[in-house]
Amino acid sequence: AQSVTQLGSHVSVSEGALVLLRCNYSSSVPPYLFWYVQYPNQGLQLLLKYTTGATLVKGINGFEAEFKKSETSFHLTKPSAHMSDAAEYFCAVRPSVKVIFGPGTSLSVIP
Amino acid sequence: NAGVTQTPKFRVLKTGQSMTLLCAQDMNHEYMYWYRQDPGMGLRLIHYSVGEGTTAKGEVPDGYNVSRLKKQNFLLGLESAAPSQTSVYFCASSYQGTDTQYFGPGTRLTVL
After folding, report:
1. In angstroms, what CA-CA distances link B37 with A104, B34, B64, B70?
2. Residues of chain A positioned with their CB less than 8 A from the CB of B100
3. What b-and-e string marks burial along B6-19, b requiring 16 or more CB atoms within 10 Å of the CB?
4. CA gap A105, B55 in Å, rounded
5. How distant is the Cα of B82 from the closest Cα of chain A, in angstroms?
6. What is the pLDDT of residues B40-73, one digit of tens each?
7. CB 3.0 to 4.6 Å from B17: which of A55, B13, B32, B92, for a disulfide?
8. Strand, helix or coil at A61?
9. E strands present in chain A
């Protein structure tokens, strides 16, 4: 069965520090991979996605992620955290019509 | 464009009551989805639809029913609400099955 694992349900970083949110997936077929962000009391919105082609994907707000097939990973990074990055982040894999979401990682940014 | 809208935003039900959640999208998307979000569990797919008049079960369909009579609307029904259905419900839509999903703002449901 397909699954998505996000290491760390809560991550804290200092403002200006590197953000690294980890995502690993299991999939029997080449998947589409997504990162979504959810701000408090809002729906999810797309940060970035990988479909085919270049394995380093750039998204909105300075985030990027790299698809590593050999590691079945799709980690999300941002060089310098801002206070506005505090939110819940979800990794998702889409092998077919159905999307499988990870449990989420809550990111806190410390001034 | 309004995108994906959900009605109502909040609702409190008593055990055994019924209700319908409405999702509407104005992007002419074929695919629509209903998820529930619970702490520490991410989003779990309840039902989905690949086009007008079609529906299919997702990961956690028990206790819910859906209908897609019009392309732009996707209704989620609870026939006899249970406390285990207390959750935040999100609707989403996409143009194709592997495309980006666009989410509504959510409905917070409490079942007493």
Report:
1. 11, 10, 15, 25
2. 34, 46, 49
3. beeeebebeeeeeb
4. 31
5. 23
6. 888 999 999 999 999 999 999 999 999 999 999 9
7. B13
8. helix
9. 3-5, 10-14, 19-21, 24-26, 32-38, 44-50, 56-58, 64-68, 73-78, 87-94, 100-101, 105-110
Total residues found in chain B within this entry: 112
Neighbours of A43 (CB within 10 A): 22
Q: What is the count of residue pairs from A and B with beta carbons less than 8 Å apart?
A: 53
Tokens 């569990």, residue? B41
The parts of chain A modelled with pLDDT lower than 70 are 1, 28-30
Q: Contacts of residue B49 in chain A, CB cutoff 8 Å?
A: none
User: So what's the pLDDT on residue B104?
Assistant: 95
* B42, B100, B105 member nearest A43 (Cβ): B105
Kindly calculate the radius of gyration of chain A based on its CA atoms and give it in whole angstroms.
13
Report the distance separating Cα B66 and Cα B46, nearest Å. 9
Determine the Cα–Cα distance for residues B21 and B39; give it in Å rounded to an integer: 21
d(CA B57, CA B69): 17
Distance of alpha carbon A64 from the chain centroid: 9
CA distance B13 to B2: 28
Q: Are B87 and B66 in contact (CB under 8 A)?
A: no
Name the minimum distance, in Å, from the CA of B35 to any CA of chain A. Answer: 10
- Cβ–Cβ contact A44 with B under 8 A: yes
